[in-house]
Design brief:
Elements lengths: L28 H23 L35 E4 L3 E4 L4 H12 L12 E5 L3 H7 L11 E4 L6 H10 L12 E4 L10 E4 L3 H16 L6 E5 L3 H4 L1 H9 L3 E4 L6 H8 L6 E4 L7 H9 L4 E4 L4 H10 L15 E6 L3 H7 L11 E4 L7 H9 L3 E2 L10 E5 L7 H11 L2 E2 L5
Parallel strand pairs: 2-14, 3-4, 3-5, 5-6, 7-8, 7-9, 9-10, 11-12, 11-14, 13-15
Antiparallel strand pairs: 1-2
Helix pairs in contact: 2-4, 2-11, 3-5, 3-11
Length: 426
Amino acid sequence: MARPINADVPAQRPTAPERPKRRRRPIPGALKAIAGLVLLAIVFIVAAILGGGGGEKSSKAPAPVGEAPSTPAEAPTAATPEQLGYPAFATANTTRVGGNDPASNAAGVALAVYPSTKPSQRPAAVTLADAGDWRTAIAAAVLMAPPLGAPVLLSEADGMPDATEEALAALDPTGSRDTGGAQAFATGTADVPGGLKTRRVRAGGVTGAAAIAALREKLAGRPPRHIVVASTADPAFAMPAAAWAARSGDPVLFTGPDDLAKPTAKALKAHPQTPVYVLGPSSAISSGVVREIAELGPQVRRVAGEDPVANAVEMARYDDGGFGWNVNDPGHGFVVARSEDPLDAAAAAALSASGTWGPLLLTDDADTLPATLRGYLLDVKPGYTNDPTRAFYNHVWVIGDQEAISVNEQAEIDELAALTRIGGGE
């Protein structure tokens, strides 16, 4: 099966917030056969890339990550599909980025968006987000929005995960005028390798999110069109904000459920005419906080579902002029992740600002597709009457290994995304 050129990103231990260890499911026999073909293709792709430079001079190999085998006989011992933070298994309408932790998923997403086989495919910059702070990681997704285009990778105070280090070497960011010459942005205490021109936001949490918003505004040279305010209390309700920030350039600020956070209030005071959209129900951000925001001057509206799955669907459906995905018909891309992994929202955000530009949807179970999500995918299921080649199509990126989202659940998503005949025709 043909697949984009990406690197084999080895899986790492989960970064904070840590996901409870799930029992690994056996891979079905048919999937093993497909995976074997995929891995064989990887060997040939990596060999081709290592063997030819395409006329470009570079001191770094652009696509492979990880040490090249010393002899051809060692190639079959490469990582299995589940260990790759890379689209290791695809159906007709879905592609899985199958890392077993957010750092591997972020690496796989970045390499899917930026194959980096030649300089024109490399990003100007990357964002190395502190894996110990999901708030600034989600806020940092705004740096992926045009014109910066910086995908999120995850790093830690005591060193970079191997997946991040190897992806960064493959991406080899160039720096640009838009990024102020920076090749990397870093948040909090995230470790950054030497040699990269880096711009760091040292603050964390709510303060860090406000600082990221200010950095984005300075680099973009204009104020934001809208501002999203998300909850610090329940990360699952904040997750859809990452995809929208990457898509739109609208910054994400944070507040507690009962009192408006001071750094957020300060940032909002500086933009009294900028509309604010509160993401999540009153259990996540109270009506009292909404009133506090309104008193600062801006127009305020709430986008909310009663639970994280419904909340993500509401964000996907929402339309208020220039704000909101307004995805209420067929012909779109989507990203599906587990609601318990907020870092995966940041990791996957680059997919919402490239390719099929889709909203983030959430599932709260590894085996069973939530009824709300299933109903939404049915609502936007594509169809045709006469000629399927002239139809609209849906495509879904699935984030995480089969412990996060099982193969059976992926198959159901594929079925819901599939083009179907709806009558008529010859």
